Amino acid sequence: MTATSNPDAGVPLRRRLIARWRGFKAAAAAVLVCAALGGCTGEQFQKGYILPPNALEQIPIGASQDQVLIVMGTPSTVATLSGEVFYYISQRSERKVAFMNQQVVDQRVIAIYFDKNRQVQRLANYGLQDGKIFDFISRTTPTSGQELSYLTPLFKLLSFN
Fold first, then answer.
1. What string of DSSP letters covers 36-57?
2. Tens of each residue's pLDDT in the chain, 161 residues
3. How far apart are CA 109 and CA 107, in angstroms?
4. Distance between CA atoms of 139 and 142, rounded to whole angstroms?
5. How big is the CA angle at 34 (ends 33 and 40), to the nearest 5 degrees?
6. What's the predicted TM-score (pTM) here?
7. Are 135 and 126 in contact (CB under 8 A)?
8. Does the first or last residue of the chain, that is N or C, have fewer Cβ atoms within 10 Å of its Cβ?
């Protein structure tokens, strides 16, 4: 008598099919568990204006209002303080696990100030640092006055989801 090289030769067909079916079910269960856990990973959300790379470097002091509109696009809002000001408002938030509340990671208000001749007078990139409004370009915190009284409600409005 010769030894067979097929290990399944002595096992009935029904048992082999059951074993394969169990293996298939185990693999399918593993794929479903991985897919379910993959859905729990975090997400990032961007709301409002998305600043193009190097956009602020393309706007020199003295540039015209039309040049600003070409580089930056339409502002989120416009104000008239002692001249005209374009505000570009954005907020970045993330959710670490699916179905949880979003956490605000960053809020920015880019302000471009114009003089009476509609030329850029100064640029500001406002955000929150240590819970206070901070200009990341001039590295200063604005003091109370007309400008801060306009920025404070914008940040309060942004902080509610």
1. HHHTTS-EEEEEE--PPTTTGG
2. 455 555 555 667 777 777 778 777 777 777 777 666 666 667 888 888 888 888 889 999 999 999 999 999 999 888 876 778 999 988 888 888 767 788 878 888 899 999 989 999 989 888 876 556 666 676 566 655 545 555 666 665 655 54
3. 7
4. 10
5. 95
6. 0.61
7. yes
8. N
